[in-house]
Design a protein that fits this description.
By secondary structure, this protein is α/β, with parallel strands linked by helices. It has 16 helices and 13 strands. The strands form two sheets. Strands 1, 2, 3, 6, 7, 8, 9, 10, 11, 12 and 13 form an eleven-stranded mixed beta sheet that branches. Strands 4-5 form a two-stranded antiparallel ribbon. The two termini are 38 Å apart.
Length: 396
C-alpha cells in the first residue's frame, strides 16, 4: 500500500481487474486539491461502496470491471500519504507530476507483470490540473528513455479545472441557462469578466502572488452566483449543499479511522484520515489559476488520446466551461473537431449523453449527472471507460 521515497510515503490502493489481467492499468486522481482518492474508491468507481453499518458492498459498476485500477492519495499530505519533511509538500504541477511519475516507476518495478499493459490516466475536478501534467511527464519520460517505459495510451478528465481563464467566465452563462440567476444578474456579474481574464493572463506569465490575485478576482464571479443561489449544491444544482463538502462522506472517515482498518492497511495508528486536507489545499493555492491546457496539444499530436467528460448538472466545473476550453484549444485537429457532428451516447438503449470527437480528442456531456459522474451515472461511466479505451466511444 505504500511507496516510500526519502521521508515521503505515498499511499495507494491497487485492484486487479475482475475481468482479465491484461486489461489496461488505470490510475485515478481525485481533486481538491488535497482530497483523498478514497472518495472515488468508495463513492464512485471503486470495487466497493460503504454500507450504513460500515461493511463493504460490491459495486457492480466499479472500473475494476474493465481495468487494473490504482487509487493514489496525492499530493503528499493527502489522505494517508504523509511526510516528516515539509519540503515534500508540493506547491505546483512540476512537483506533483514528478512525484507521481516516480511513484509509477516504483509501482511498475513492484508489479512488472503489468508493464506491458496499456496505461490510462483518469480523475476529476482539480485533477484537471494533475492529469495533463502527469500525462506530459510520462510522455517526456518515455521519449527520454527514462526508467521503465509506461505504455501511455490516453488521459481522461472528468468535470475538471484545466483552463481557468476560459472556465471562470463561463459561470454566469451556465447559471443563466440553468435558471440559477436572472438576465439582469447575469449582465451585472459578466462586467467583471475582462478583469478576471487579464488577471489570469498575468498569472500565466508572472506566477507567484499574481496567481493569488487572479484567483481572488475570478472567484468573485463564482461567489456572486452562490450568494444569489443560496444553499445550492454547486456540485449538483438539483440538490442542496449539506456540510463542508456538500455531501455526507462521514462513513468514509469513520471506517478509515478505525484502528483495525489502519492496522490492516499498514497505516500508522496515529495518522488521522481526513477526506480533504486543508494544508494541501493551501499549499497549492498559487497553482489554481495556471492553465494546464497548454501541454495538451503536444500530447494529441503524439497520438495520445484525450477524453474530457462532464456531468451536465455540475456548476463548479461545469460542462459549458469545459466545452469552451476544449474547442478553443489550438492543435492540428481544432477545426475538424469544431465542425464534428454531435452524436448521441447511448447506453442500453438510453440516451446518456452527447459526444463530439475527432482523431484523439473526445468531449462527452453526460446527462443527469453532477460533478461526480461515476457516482451519479455509474453504468454510463463504466460504459464510457470501456468504449473509450477500446476506441469505440461513438458506437452504440
Amino acid at each position: 500500500f505504500f511507496f516510500s521515497a526519502m521521508k515521503c510515503r505515498m499511499f495507494y490502493f491497487f485492484f486487479e481487474s475482475r475481468n482479465r489481467k491484461d486489461d489496461p492499468v488505470v490510475i485515478w486522481l481525485t481533486g481538491g486539491p488535497g482530497c483523498g482518492s478514497e472518495l472515488a474508491l468508495f463513492y464512485e468507481n471503486g470495487p466497493f461502496h460503504i454500507a450504513n453499518n460500515l461493511s463493504l458492498l460490491w459495486n457492480d459498476y466499479g472500473w475494476d470491471q474493465a481495468s487494473n485500477i490504482l487509487f493514489v492519495d496525492q499530493p503528499t499530505g493527502t489522505g494517508f500519504s504523509y511526510t516528516s519533511d515539509q519540503a515534500d509538500i508540493r506547491h505546483d504541477e512540476t512537483g506533483v507530476s514528478n512525484d507521481l511519475y516516480n511513484f509509477l516507476q516504483e509501482f511498475f518495478k513492484a508489479h512488472p507483470e503489468f508493464i506491458k499493459n496499456d496505461f490510462y490516466i483518469t480523475g476529476e475536478s482539480y485533477a484537471g490540473h494533475y492529469i495533463p501534467a502527469l500525462a506530459s511527464r510520462v510522455n517526456q519520460g518515455n521519449k527520454g528513455n527514462q526508467g521503465i517505459h509506461i505504455n501511455l495510451k490516453g488521459f481522461a478528465i472528468g468535470n475538471g479545472l484545466t483552463n481557468p481563464a476560459v472556465q471562470f467566465p463561463a459561470y454566469p452563462d451556465f447559471a443563466l441557462d440553468n435558471g440559477i440567476i436572472s438576465k439582469a444578474e447575469h449582465d451585472d456579474i459578466t462586467k467583471s469578466i475582462p478583469v478576471c481574464e487579464q488577471a489570469a493572463k498575468t498569472c500565466q506569465t508572472q506566477g507567484g502572488t499574481s496567481c493569488d490575485n487572479a484567483l481572488n478576482i475570478c472567484y468573485k464571479i463564482f461567489s456572486s452566483i452562490l450568494s444569489i443561489a443560496g444553499d445550492i449544491n454547486y456540485y449538483d444544482i438539483r440538490k442542496k449543499c449539506v456540510g463542508d463538502l456538500c455531501y455526507d462522506f462521514s462513513h468514509l472517515e469513520t471506517l478509515l479511522n478505525l484502528q483495525k482498518v489502519k492496522s490492516a492497511l499498514g497505516v500508522p495508528v496515529n495518522l488521522e484520515f481526513v477526506s480533504c486536507s486543508s494544508a494541501v489545499y493551501d499549499a497549492m493555492i498559487q497553482d489554481w489559476m495556471k492553465n494546464l491546457e497548454v501541454g495538451i496539444p503536444a500530447l494529441l499530436e503524439d497520438g495520445i488520446k484525450l477524453l474530457v467528460y462532464a456531468g451536465e448538472k455540475d456548476l463548479i466545473c461545469n460542462w459549458l466551461g469545459n466545452s469552451r476550453w476544449v474547442h478553443a484549444m489550438q492543435w492540428s485537429g481544432q477545426k475538424a473537431f469544431g465542425t464534428s457532428p454531435t452524436v448521441k451516447f447511448v447506453v442500453d438503449g438510453v440516451d446518456a449523453g452527447s459526444l463530439n470527437s475527432y482523431g484523439p480528442l473526445s468531449f462527452l456531456k453526460v446527462y443527469d449527472a453532477g460533478h461526480m459522474v461515476p457516482m451519479d451515472q455509474p453504468k454510463a461511466a463504466l460504459e464510457m471507460l470501456k468504449r473509450w479505451m477500446g476506441g469505440k466511444l461513438a458506437t452504440q
